[in-house]
Amino acid sequence: MHLSSFFRSSAAVFSTSVLLRVVFLLYGLFQDAYSPMKYTDIDYFVFTDAARFISQGRSPYTRDTYRYTPLLAWLIYPTTWPGFWFSFGKVLFAIGDIVAGWMMFHILRSHQNMPLDRALKFASIWLLNPMVATISTRGSSEGLLGVIVIALLWAVLAKRVRLAGLLLGLAVHFKIYPFIYAASIIWWLDEDRIDQAKERKSKPKSSLLSRIISFVNSERLTLTIFSLFTFMGLNIVMYLAYGYPFLEHSYFYHLIRIDHRHNFSPYNTLLYLNSAPQGQSHPSFELERLAFLPQLLLSALMIPLALAKKDLPSTMLAQTFAFVTFNKVCTSQYFLWYMMFLPFYLPVSTLLSSRKTGIVALVLWVLGQALWLQQGYQLEFLGNSTFVPGLWTAGILFFVVNVGILGLIIRDVRAKETDPLRLKAAKKTS
Amino acid sequence: MKQRITYLVRNPDEFTPEQLAVKPSSIALRKVNAAKEHRITLGLEELPDELRKAFNQWHELHIRWASESPYDAIPPFTSRVSPGLHVFYTPQKDHPDSLLCPLLKEVFGNGFVCEDPKETFIKLPILSERFSMSSSTQFYTRIPDLASLVSYFQSKICPLSPNSCKISASTLLSASYVDIDYDAISHTLIINAFWARAPNEENHWTETISLPGSQETIEIGILNNEPNPDPEDISFSGFLTVLGQDTQPKPTRFQTPTRHYPLSASSLVYKTSFAHPTGLHPTLILTLPTKHLEPPDTTCRLHAHLTLPRTLFIDKYQFSDSLFLSSHHITSLRSISGATDLEAPDWVVPQWGSAALFELDTPSSDPDPDQEAGRDWNITIPLHLRYFPPSNSTHTPLAVPWPVLFWACRAEEGTKMSVNPFDRIHLGYEALFGPKTRFMHIPPAASRNGNGNGRGRREGGGELVEWIDVPVLDLRKAGWVEVGTVGVVLVSFLGLCWVLFGKGVGEGGAGVKKVGKGKKRQ
């Protein structure tokens, strides 16, 4: 089949994406059965061990390093059944992937008014991406989070605010970071969005109070209430069922963790230096304690305020990108968090329209990682002390490359024509 | 004070009673080629106040120290522990144990971390309930020699005793292993030292043992091994003398069941090494000659007991897959206790480390055809390193004691083993087996060519210790890490703020216009 006709058939794209995952899944079974080196992700053994503890009426936190909601272990409960059921979780994560891809396609078609083949091409960035398929078939739960986040985006765009609130609460319960989307969604949900047909009453010089009152519209209120209730409701249920370990492992751990193991984060070397007893002997301002400030200011406040009303999906991309780039811990599975928004942003991006910029950005992103991985390999397997300058420099370089790409994304979204329907409102607020 | 001294003659044909001269209160030995065990039993009232006060806090304390130099064992002294200082301790209910760590440091030197037994010591798993004698917690640290213990004895204990005390204390410097036992029920302190050979060129004992006072007794045995009469017994013949009572050596012959049974295949030894480069995931390699690696009995299983300082840890979850296990020649991870946190860096782990028991595959249980006689059988145990504190160098050396290897076999007469006058328990692993178990220890290999394999050896380190270079953050190069990181993050943040809110950025509508390349270098 010719490539262009391939992307004209949604059946072809989706069955290929299914086939891709089936092949990966079967290959994984084969490798696991015949090689001491496992295809299956270590995390998957953590999940399935936790599910087994649940099936024995015990806490999933009996398993060391289970740092997730018990909901995840419950979701893959069938993995405790004998035989092929062990792979149930991987199948579930892979289905999650495909459903997420399907919703991407749907959003591209109906909310970005894209022709079928173009929408399929961009959805394929996710659907036919071997990295995405590998991650889910190896049994990492990131794909499951993907489907929740994309469903959240779809629900918001489709104005199903109650459903969106539910999904937002669920997503934050699953992995804390989606709370950053609350800001952009709430900012995006202004009067014009809710009822574009209704004539907006003109209030040239409104008082602060009336501004606040008009800000707190029913949709924003609904979203807040539904998400808070879902989030707190799930937490209360899990706390009642599993007690303090639930709070400790699914929340507190992520807030206080200082990972010393080398990772992509620019803070990595500094954290290692300043958390060790010997490292503290040198004078330090312990500025790494403030690392959350640039991260949260950008991802949860400034980017949503500046961009959300122009293009919600691309804003969420920028937010996630900023969150991951400025995070104190960063591993390659975090890249999946922003990758799921690429299909919405790329169609109108500088990265695609200026081929040179796109290629340079991609090459620098890959090179940054490759340089870091090379230093990491030297440390991890050869035992060379590459912490400084090697790993540190590589981490900083990769950070700078990411900041550059983030700058491009922000610039592109800022430059977007504001929705014509909302032009008047936008002028007023800016 | 009671003393018992036992010499185990290595070659009975070389020994004649003429080498002994017994007088009413002394015995003299001349050129006796033997292993020696010296056991001193002290009542609490014979100890200085500070010790008595400390002992009164505890229920049980068993100290096992073993030398880092390989020694050739001789029945009944075949049991082994990893080189270093092992402390097995059971607290007394409702008593503080604040004195234990300070005392250990005073006695054995300040070179180790011991804050509070509740934090530093690890809980021992006890699989066999009937071993109610087992201690509940364990501590380990590397102590290359006993110089500190000797000077402690000389300054704190010897002043109460005659002059010979200081001399016999100093002999501990050449001991192969030393045991110190106390328990609240017997209220006695037993110090037991073992020398595999005399510490001189000829390896001959030429010494005179005199009775220090009329209140005391010294029992002296000069024994040699006899062929084993019953399959689970060992037997001895020789001379016994009780100083002060006997005027000449009394011939003796006896047999006893034994927990630690001699291994007949004398050419079976093991070597320990690390696969190089060690990286952050060192692999411990145990090497044995395939030819001699046959179980001495069908009930025997090969085991390795590892004592790991906390910088090294075992990920127990790795050892569940049968393909993985058999590729490493491991049957199973039988037990693991102590610092098993998979993520914590070295400096946040409160315990001294961890102890693990592995059951190992043997060539016969492996159908692999290319493992022929004459080749080496390698068992590999994957380990992981914790992050170690930064220092003014690129690497920090880490000492890892050799594990002990033994066959654990079924014994018919488990309970009778304790009648053996040379029975040795509280070694850290025997409580992980049922009471009807006998252990046949495989000796570690003495280095073949003088200085060993060169790699992994250190000045002042013994042969039964392997060294790993742990890569650490080099503080000499880290001066600008803080300023650099904070500076880059700050500039990036401000640059992004400018892109977000600055005038002239992104204006112009299409958003697909030219984008400055300088953007990448914010």
Order of strands, main sheet of chain B, comes to: 7-8-6-5-9-10-4-1-12-13-14
Low-confidence spans of chain A = 197-203, 420-430
Taken as a percent bin, the fraction of beta residues of chain A is under 5%
> What is the averaged pLDDT score of chain B?
85
Report the strand count of chain B. 26
Class from helix and strand fractions of chain B: mainly beta
- Percent helix of chain A: 55-70%
Summarize the amount of helix of chain B as a percent range.
10-25%
**SSE order of chain A:** HHHHHHHHHHHHHHHHHHHHHHH
- Please count the beta strands of chain A (DSSP E, at least 2 residues each): 0
Work out the strand percent of chain B.
25-35%
Number of helices of chain A: 23
Tell me the greatest interface.
A-B, 77 and 65 residues
Count of alpha/pi helices of chain B: 7
Distance between the termini of chain A: 50 Å
- Secondary-structure-derived class of chain A: mainly alpha
Quaternary state, please? Answer: heterodimer
Shape of chain A: globular
Low-confidence stretches of chain B: 448-457, 508-522
Quick structural summary:
The complex is a heterodimer of chains A (430) and B (522). Chain A is mainly α and 430 residues long.
List the helices and strands and how they pair.
The complex is a heterodimer of chains A (430) and B (522).
Chain A: H1 3-6, H2 10-34, H3 42-55, H4 70-75, H5 88-110, H6 116-127, H7 130-137, H8 142-157, H9 161-174, H10 180-188, H11 191-194, H12 208-215, H13 218-242, H14 244-256, H15 268-275, H16 292-307, H17 312-325, H18 335-339, H19 342-345, H20 350-353, H21 355-380, H22 387-414, H23 423-429
Chain B: E1 2-9, E2 20-23, E3 26-32, E4 34-43, H1 49-57, E5 58-66, E6 84-91, H2 100-108, H3 117-120, E7 122-123, E8 137-141, H4 147-157, H5 164-170, E9 177-183, E10 188-195, E11 205-210, E12 217-226, E13 233-243, E14 250-257, E15 271-274, E16 283-289, E17 301-309, E18 312-313, H6 322-327, E19 330-338, E20 353-360, E21 376-382, E22 384-385, E23 395-401, E24 404-410, E25 437-442, E26 465-471, H7 481-501
Parallel strand pairs in B: 1-12
Antiparallel strand pairs in B: 1-4, 2-3, 3-11, 4-10, 5-6, 5-9, 6-8, 7-8, 9-10, 12-13, 13-14, 15-16, 16-21, 17-20, 17-24, 18-22, 19-20, 23-26, 24-25
Protein name (chain B): PIG-X-domain-containing protein
Organism (chain B): Lindgomyces ingoldianus
Protein name (chain A): GPI mannosyltransferas-like protein 1
